[in-house]
């Protein structure tokens, strides 16, 4: 198969017939009208902003596709070579034949890689309606040409300047004649022919080469400095001889009073025909930095996944009784972030990451009270009840789709304000796309290989060269997001030692097989995977309080959870008690055991084995939660593989004997005790001065402070008081006492409309086709109906004629064209197929809206039958 046949196949696949028998399209709308439904669906899939709202017909679609905002968005999604192709078309003649475009991209000497990649690039531009027309008349849409064409205010990325015709506009005819005469050309009778003669000279390789052979060496040096851009240079009123030589022959043309410009045709000759200095037809490969055995990667990632679960669980427990206050502007203060980092034993940046993941998963949220603060949600308790692998799947899936960007915490926005963790300004719509793309590129490496970060960033820059400094001026946001993705994926256990784990690969449906960096013919795919941000699930029978249950969200990544589950350590049901008042957990504990032990003891160290320490405070905490000393002895005996040490038994009995001897209640607050000597001891202690106690009775003290402060003050003095209710009963406090109301997890904030699914695309294409049919319909010529408007205007008929026509159409099953005015007075044209006419209403299938509707007959302004060959 020859190169021409390959080019033809590529263009036919893009949706445009090469050298077909039909007439060439004159407008973009005509080009779109010639496409099949698959071609229109491909356009709407690649540019989903064109669907909001659904265009009424193909003319509206073409108009919207040419608006500046939509074209800018489409250009930002092009890879580097497709963008270079569009830039070359912007400096080519309009329209440009395909061979001319190939010459601008490959140069006079040609390039096999460019010749192979150019049909794909043209196909992308054509599919996205940035280019239209057959190969002999390729046209870049006007808005894209305005954005990419060279101008003094917006230099072209090609480094080319204006054409000879553009640069000489406004030049005096006498000066033009002087230039062509000095260049060795015969004089002409008008400026137009003079410009054409100079242009022909600069585009003739042989004559242009002969002219440059006579140039001074200094003049050639000046051209070398201008040839790749910028093409402008400053001159003095009395320029040097080399500059004068170039200016006299039109190789430098005046741009302003003090600047000259190298015309485009001359620059292209000096560049050997290339529009770009370094064309990049092939995507740079992501190179592996190191390779490990896949089993090592999976086990390392699983260990980190378990650490991630422990960190989020510890965060929830740390805030069980209420977390830090919410700032007035939203988010958490720097001081509270530092405290959380200390509690989790991580850096502040890592703590911010765990906070954002938990917040995105709906596990923590503001409580909505007057003095608002953060706290775990009911979903946190639901999450704790899931198997470990499913808990991880929820966190990883949330992170992958979230637009919130923890890496921005601590930086400043464009107004100089510091961005706070859990604050309102951390959403970046491009984040899910970058995360998913980074993981997809990792999936294309050999199994167990970690990437070279520089080659990974180079690949991302090639795929989206225009999308970097979207909000962060002067910085490449996509590069920063990619670096954060590598770090965050390692923290979550999606990767191990930098390489994608098997359960991480399962998060990416359709990910390439290991070792296939470029899945299509050695080139990057036409559309690198774009993550469509999932819309919040509609509340159904499984919804609770407007949120999606954790088990429903986990089902989205059940495959990843299934692969991770065998790699996680099995929970154990025992601990090892030691004589130094510590207990060693040889692995992750089963949930009931872990919850009870977390109340009875404090965590002293973490790692492969967790060490718990028993203290008077921790034992008192267990007694406060409703446990009795006998319950604690029985619990330890049942779950310890070693005998209960005597010091631990004494500690429990001693704290239990003193626990509740004092009772604190609300008067403002009071203390009562059957032993008045104890109350006397408290009054005599100088540390009680701040509590402002006074004796009301031999066994009762009153305090001018609240019960909680009184409890803490007495405990700091070494006593073990118990709180009591208004009825005199001991109040039992539990670790999970405080929860926010049911909250909906924050929905991602996409940068633009999400990629439409097949159902929406099909409905949109049918609606656009129907609307286009209504706008371009051919009506049957009926000279007996003088009130029927012509020239495509809505039909006008009497009420009797309207009723008769729609009744006849209902009996024959044919479609008719109607004019209709809705209740708001808006007029429209529709193509309908009447089904039933009764009671002053017509029920019909509306081809324009692609649904069955009912229309009042009195609102139909007129009706016309369609020609037999219409549509």
Secondary structure elements and pairings:
Blueprint: H1 3-13, H2 28-33, H3 37-46, H4 58-65, H5 68-76, H6 80-91, H7 98-106, H8 112-127, E1 131-132, E2 139-140, H9 142-148, H10 164-167, H11 173-182, H12 191-203, H13 205-213, H14 217-226, E3 232-234, H15 241-248, E4 253-254, E5 259-261, H16 264-270, E6 288-291, H17 294-318, H18 334-344, H19 348-360, E7 364-366, E8 374-376, H20 378-384, H21 388-401, H22 431-443, E9 449-451, H23 453-463, H24 477-492, E10 495-496, E11 499-500, H25 502-505, H26 550-554, H27 558-564, E12 576-578, E13 582-585, H28 591-600, E14 602-605, E15 610-613, H29 616-624, H30 629-639, H31 646-658, E16 663-665, E17 669-672, H32 676-684, E18 693-697, E19 700-703, H33 707-716, E20 722-723, H34 758-776, H35 799-812, E21 816-821, E22 827-838, E23 841-846, E24 851-856, E25 860-865
Parallel strand pairs: 16-20
Antiparallel strand pairs: 1-2, 3-5, 4-5, 6-9, 7-8, 10-11, 12-13, 13-15, 14-15, 16-17, 17-19, 18-19, 21-22, 21-25, 22-23, 23-24
Helix pairs in contact: 1-8, 3-34, 6-8, 6-9, 11-12, 14-15, 17-19, 18-19, 21-27, 22-24, 23-24, 29-31
